[in-house]
Structure formats: structure tokens, C-alpha cells
Automatic annotation (TrEMBL):
Pfam families from the UniProt entry: YjbQ
UniProt-listed InterPro entries: UPF0047_YjbQ-like (IPR001602), YjbQ-like_sf (IPR035917)
Organism: Cyanobium usitatum str. Tous
Listed name of the protein: Secondary thiamine-phosphate synthase enzyme
Stored SUPFAM superfamilies: YjbQ-like
Domain of life of the native organism: Bacteria
Listed PANTHER family: SECONDARY THIAMINE-PHOSPHATE SYNTHASE ENZYME, UNCHARACTERIZED PROTEIN YJBQ-RELATED
């Protein structure tokens, strides 16, 4: 019998741009459900974050940050940053067009297989929550569907 489980992962990011490895949080959710085989969908709840699968190696994460900032520099004249032309904008609204544009390139959701109770990630793969406009409080919606039986039902 297929069942569905949902939760929200809460994360406080600590930098303007960062990559936080949330793989252990996702695996803990899988463990708590008892689902042995199925699909886990992770959906970022913000337009200036992204979800990706990549290696969580510190130097690579710095390379990723520099790469996207070079492609989409924050100091370009983006129309979204003309806050005085946008009605109803709060006084603390950030100039963050670059963060929205980078998030578009990366995407905000992932679907991952769960096999024998484990996330279907490769040896060096990790699920990264990419913060592009922090630090902020962030949420990732998780939904797991599957069954509690072993491989083959």
C-alpha cells in the first residue's frame, strides 16, 4: 500500500550566499516514516533559494559561489532592484534581482529515489540548499510517497 508523508524542513542560513548540506535531514525524514522504497520530493519555499545535488566539498562550494556571481553580478542595473518604482515595497526590501536570476538557473525542487530505506544518492553526492539572499529563515517542503516493504514489494 502506497502512503504519503509530508513535513517542512526549517533552516536558518548564515551567509548571503551559501550551500548547506541537508542530506542528513532528508534521510532522517525517510527514517522516521518507515518508507523503504519510494520517491522523495523536496521543494524550496522561496524564490531566492535553490536545491541541487552536488558534492559538498568546501573548496568546490566556494567555486560554485564565485561562478554564479560572475555570471550574474549583484551590482548590475536590474529593473527588479528599482525599488522606488515598485508599489507597496517594505522599507527593508533587499536589492536581490541577481539572487532570483541565479535561483532560476539552479531550480527549486528535486525528486530523489528511496531504495531500501536510503536516499538514492551517489558516493560523493549531497543535497544542497543554496541560499542566494541570506541570511534568512528558510523552509523546504518534503513529501515522501512509497511503501514500507523491501525491494520488490
Amino acid at each position: 500500500m502506497v502512503t504519503f508523508h509530508s513535513t517542512r524542513l526549517e533552516r536558518t542560513t548564515t551567509a548571503n550566499i551559501s550551500c548547506d548540506d541537508i542530506s542528513a535531514d532528508l534521510q532522517a525524514f525517510v527514517d522516521a516514516t518507515g518508507i523503504r522504497n519510494g520517491l522523495l520530493v523536496a521543494a524550496g519555499q522561496h524564490t531566492t533559494t535553490a536545491l541541487v545535488v552536488n558534492e559538498a566539498e568546501e573548496r568546490l562550494l566556494g567555486d560554485i559561489e564565485r561562478h554564479f556571481l560572475a555570471l550574474t553580478p549583484p551590482d548590475r542595473p536590474y529593473a527588479h532592484n528599482d525599488l522606488h518604482l515598485r508599489p507597496g515595497i517594505p522599507a527593508d526590501e533587499p536589492r536581490n534581482a541577481h539572487a532570483h536570476l541565479i535561483a532560476l538557473k539552479l531550480g527549486n525542487h528535486l525528486t530523489l529515489p528511496v531504495v531500501d530505506g536510503r536516499l538514492g544518492l551517489g558516493r560523493y553526492q549531497a543535497v544542497l540548499l543554496v541560499e542566494l539572499d541570506g541570511p534568512r529563515q528558510r523552509q523546504v517542503l518534503l513529501q515522501l510517497c512509497g511503501d514500507g516493504s523491501g525491494v520488490g514489494g
